[in-house]
Amino acid sequence: MADGAGVVTLERDGEIGIVTVDSPPVNALSAAVRDGIAGRIREASADDGIRAIVLLCAGRTFIAGADISEFGKPPKGTPLNLMIDTIESAPKPVVAAIHGTALGGGLETALGAHYRVAVPSAKVGLPEVKLGLIPGAGGTQRLPRVVGAKRALEMITSGEQVPARAAQESGLIDAIVEEGKLREGAVAFARTVVAEARPLRKVRDLTDKIEAAKAEPGLFDAFRQANARKFRGFEAPEGCIKAIEAAMTLPFDEGLRAERAIFEPLMAGTQSKAQRYVFFAEREARKVPDLPDSTPTLPVESVGIVGAGTMGGGIAMNFLNAGIPVTIVEAKKENLERGLATIRKNYEATAAKGRLKPADVETRMNLLTGSLEMADLGRQDLVIEAIFENMELKKETFAKLDQVAKPGAILASNTSYLNVDEIAAATGRPESVIGMHFFSPANVMRLLEVVRAEKASKEVVATAMKLGPKIGKLAVLVGVCHGFVGNRMLAERQREANRLVEEGAMPWDVDRVLYEFGLPMGPFAMSDLAGLDIGWSRETSKGETLREKLCEMDRRGQKTGAGFYDYDASRTAKPSELVERLVLDHSKAKGIERRAFTDEQILERLIFPMINEGAKILEEGKALRASDIDMVWITGYGWPVYRGGPMFYADTVGARTVLARMEEWESEIGPEFKPSELLRRKAASGEQFTGAA
Ligand code: T1G
Asked: Ligand 1 within 6 A of 57 CB?
């Protein structure tokens, strides 16, 4: 319907007009919703029998923002700023009634109202920065007028969701009404506003918080400096800060224009395209074509873990955090005790930072049981093996689990690379065996690769996928192959990183290029952090690779004060002259004529083979979609979200360019650069992997 009458209705409760938005799933501000709100507000404004207006939403939540699926398309319907102005300039009080989440344009709409009420469970926020944007409908101009510049800076550059009571304390919400009785509470509040003849309080006219901010001239630059590391590489946070700064000095309408002038280039830019793509990609990852939502799942009310090492302990914490009891089994007493102590230490460290109450540490630890007996894993719904990455050991362990685990229990391996079908074959219940690959540190990294073994039942796979969000993980379904998706692509980058150093680059050149690209750390710095001697031993060392040579020199990374880098007492890394000489000698010994590389050449050599491997993964059906590969890299390896992931990045570079380099290297270096057929097809057709760049 032209004026949104189908999704926004007006009814009367005595002298109170009630405008209801009903546009599932989250009442996003589509053109129809914007037309509808503007239309109903105008009608209520013209109705003399209505003395105040309540604006609320049906369904699960208040308006969750602009309709992201409309971005980048030709604008239609009532512009959002105009819709909000219709509310703010109404001749009678408008009360926004909030439940669920009022986010982005939703909160901006509520800020256009004269008053705001909410139920205790409601949350409000301006998360546009997570989409590579700034609030584009007055949020950067109205929010500081209500909560002050400092709080506005925090809220808008973090995109945080603020609970109703905290919002009330900051003046953002005028009253909290009874849970489950939002409509009644809001109507009663509106009647009070009328009875007390309260003013039509327009946020745009509030100045006290602006004046107060002017008394802190250094506020903005101090905020920039304090957050420089967090905002590194992102464009939108600086846009947010600039727009809020404008609110300090410009009249409101000019401030709106300044906001728009910052918003539009961001909307058109690659970073926002990438971050909007990631928003939907994260939701797509939950969808498995042959596992509809109706697929039955198994209960997971208790978990067993085999192995109390770094991974086993980290995995345990995820379940303990979700209130799920864990029994963790180790072979040796000292290893079990060390593992349990590490879990407690991690919780206590979090509590020391004020991010966990001491009582919560005990609650979690009380859900944890340590044991030396595999026989203690006979009751759990899910048992996760997290032992050494050795196939024979894993098969032995699964054969034992097959004996002790209860019928119907899910048996999962945390293997990073190995063949889960082969592991499943070591049991008499392959339908219950799956891979659940966590990423270190397992209690921190969001990614969970769910490895779909060939014989795993649909309910076991569906259970693992649904378990992801319950333990704070993004579950991505991957197929059985060496390294699945993430590590299989990482192997390409690692090989090229090592080869670039042999051919002419230094480790710190490779690390710098990837760091500047937006990754948290390059491979050599990462190796120093993790320890160069993982999997190395003096007995078996052949002294052939740089890593082996460094280990033999006892340069094993940060823990020994030296590795690829030299470290000072505060573990600050700096390039090592000794390593430089070692690298030069190493190339010479291999008869390699070293040459210079530009940063772009280094970047291409590191990333393009990953893209080619991603294309092979798609061809082989080891990932359901290109965006799943991107979610693996963003949530498992720190790929910068503003670059959308390797496959989105391929689309911004163009398949033709990637193909040309791969063909060049194939002829110059070797068959490992052979382009995948899918890459060739994309290059020939000009089609994207993601269709979103
Ligand atoms: N636009 C379009 N679709 C949306 C949407 C939105 N804003 N938010 C959610 N959806 C879809 C989502 O894709 C999914 O679809 C379904 O709704 C349920 O979402 C001018 C420019 C509200 C906290 O950034 O944070 O306003 O997969 O699975 O976990 O200044 O959705 O079912 O087909 O996430 O309960 C600012 C984004 C926009 C909020 C609910 N707003 N949304 O979480 O459900 S920019 C946001 C969320 C803006 C203005 C600017 C969450 C949620 P499907 P879900 P949930």
From this structure: no
The per-residue DSSP string of 589-653 comes to: HTT-------HHHHHHHHHHHHHHHHHHHHHTTSBS-HHHHHHHHHHHH---GGGT-HHHHHHHH
One-letter amino acid of 36: G
Any bridge partners for residue 557, and if so which?
Answer: 562
The yes-or-no answer on residue 128 being catalytic is yes
Q: Are residues 468 and 578 in the same domain?
A: no
**25 alpha carbon to ligand 1 midpoint, in Å?**
9
**Same structural domain, 400 and 418:** yes
DSSP assigned state of 556: -
Q: How far is the CA of 67 from the centre of ligand 1 (A)?
A: 8
> Which is the catalytic residue, given 15, 70, 128, 620?
128
3-state secondary structure of 10: strand
Pocket flag, ligand 1, residue 69 (CB < 6 Å): yes
Q: Which of 11, 43, 70, 108 is catalytic?
A: 108
Please tell me whether residues 235 and 98 are part of one structural domain: yes
Q: Supply the pLDDT for residue 1.
A: 45
What pLDDT, on a 0 to 100 scale, did the predictor assign at position 3? Answer: 74
With residue 437 as reference, give the H or E element that holds it: strand 433-438
User: Is the pLDDT assigned to residue 284 strictly greater than 70?
Assistant: yes
Sheet holding 368-371, edge to edge: 368-371, 326-329, 303-306, 382-385, 410-413, 433-438, 447-452, 474-479
The model's confidence at residue 540, banded by pLDDT at 50, 70 and 90, is confident
User: Could you give the CA distance from residue 150 to residue 480 in angstroms, rounded to a whole number?
Assistant: 50
611 residue type, one letter:
I
CB atoms within 10 A of CB 596: 9
DSSP state for residue 74 in the 8-state scheme: P
| pLDDT exceeds cutoff 90 at 6 | no
Q: Is 135 in the pocket of ligand 1 (CB under 6 A)?
A: yes
Question: Which residue puts its alpha carbon closest to atom 42 of ligand 1?
Answer: 64
Same domain, 107 and 228: yes
Tell me: pLDDT of 537 over 90: no
Question: Quick check: is 254 catalytic?
Answer: no
Average pLDDT of the chain, as a whole number:
96
Q: What is the per-residue pLDDT for 2? A: 53
Our mutation pick for probing the ligand 1 site, out of 26, 109, 287, 470, counting the most ligand atoms within 8 A of Cβ, is 26
CA pair distance 622, 610, nearest whole angstrom: 15
Q: Looking at residue 342, which CATH number applies to its domain?
A: 3.40.50.720
What's the confidence (pLDDT) of residue 214?
A: 84
